[in-house]
Design a protein that fits this description.
six-stranded antiparallel beta sheet; globular; seven-stranded antiparallel beta sheet; 3 helices; Jelly Rolls; alpha+beta
Length: about 260
C-alpha cells in the first residue's frame, strides 16, 4: 500500500529542489593545488571536454612577431594516452603590448547558437566561428588558469585576473579573482573552475601582467580561459514529474525517469 501523504511530500520536496536548481546560477569552485597534469587527465579520461581556449600571454610584448592574444582550438585525446589539438593552427591570434602592472580590460563571449567566439583584450578583438573538426557542443563549464614564471633567476613576475564578472543569461555576477606569481623558473600555476554554466555566456574583467627585471617572454606569463563541459547528467523530463504528481495524489505510483546520453 502506498502512503499517499509521504509520496506527495517526497514529490513536493523534489520539485522544490528542481526549481531551486533551475533558479541557481553557475557555481564557483576554487581549486587549490590543482595541476596541469590533473586537468590534462580530465581531458584524456573524457571527464571533461574542451570546446576552445582563449589565452593572453606575454609573447614578445610587441605588435609584430610572437602573438600576445589567441583563440586556440580544443585539445582532444589522441587515443594513446596523450592530447592533440583538434586543429593544427590557432582559430585566431593578435598582437598587443603590455604595460607593467597596468590593468587591461578584457571580455570573452560565446554564442552557442552561432558558435561565435569573441575575445577582446584592451583594444584588440579576436573572433572565430567554431566548426568541425573542432568539437561542437553546448559548454557547461570553464577552467580559468593563470601562470607566472620568471624570465631568469634575478627576475620575478605575476599574472592576475581580477574584478571578474560572468553572465550566462541572468545578469553579471562576481566570481572573484585568480592570480599566480613567481620569482623562479619553477613558476606558479593556479586554477579556478566554474560549473553549471548555461551554454552562452560573457566573462569580463581585467588582466594585469607585472614583472621585475627581464620581461617574461612567450607563455611564461599567461592566462587561459578553457571553455568546455562535463558529460551530460540525466534529468527527468518535466512531463514525467507532472505524471508522477498525479499518480501520487491518487495514492499509487512509481517513479519513471527518462534518460538521455551525452551528445558530445
Amino acid at each position: 500500500m502506498v502512503n499517499t501523504k509521504n509520496s506527495i511530500f517526497l514529490l513536493t520536496s523534489i520539485g522544490t529542489c528542481l526549481l531551486s536548481s533551475a533558479a541557481n546560477a553557475f557555481t564557483i569552485n576554487p581549486l587549490p593545488g590543482f595541476t596541469d597534469s590533473q586537468f590534462n587527465n580530465l581531458l584524456i579520461s573524457g571527464q571533461w571536454n574542451e570546446l576552445f581556449v582563449a589565452e593572453s600571454r606575454g609573447g614578445n610584448n610587441a605588435l609584430t612577431g610572437d602573438q600576445e592574444t589567441v583563440i586556440n582550438p580544443a585539445f582532444i585525446p589522441d587515443g594513446v594516452g596523450g592530447l592533440v589539438p583538434a586543429l593544427p593552427n590557432p582559430l585566431a591570434e593578435g598582437q598587443t603590448t603590455w604595460t607593467n602592472g597596468t590593468p587591461v580590460d578584457f571580455s570573452l563571449t560565446y554564442n552557442s547558437s552561432s558558435h561565435l567566439v569573441t575575445y577582446t583584450v584592451g583594444t584588440e578583438t579576436l573572433s572565430s566561428v567554431l566548426a568541425s573538426p573542432n568539437p561542437l557542443f553546448d559548454p557547461n563549464g570553464l577552467y580559468l588558469r593563470t601562470r607566472a614564471t620568471a624570465q631568469d633567476s634575478v627576475s620575478s613576475s605575476s599574472m592576475v585576473l581580477q574584478n571578474l564578472l560572468l553572465d550566462d543569461g541572468s545578469g553579471f555576477l562576481p566570481i572573484g579573482s585568480l592570480s599566480s606569481s613567481s620569482g623562479s623558473a619553477a613558476g606558479d600555476i593556479n586554477y579556478l573552475n566554474i560549473a553549471n554554466l548555461n551554454a552562452s555566456f560573457t566573462l569580463k574583467g581585467q588582466q594585469v601582467l607585472s614583472w621585475s627585471g627581464a620581461f617574461p617572454t612567450g607563455s611564461k606569463l599567461a592566462a587561459q580561459i578553457k571553455v568546455g563541459g562535463t558529460p551530460f547528467v540525466s534529468t527527468p523530463e518535466p512531463t514525467a514529474w507532472l505524471g508522477l504528481t498525479a499518480i501520487a495524489a491518487f495514492g499509487a505510483g512509481a517513479m519513471v525517469k527518462k534518460k538521455r546520453t551525452n551528445s558530445f
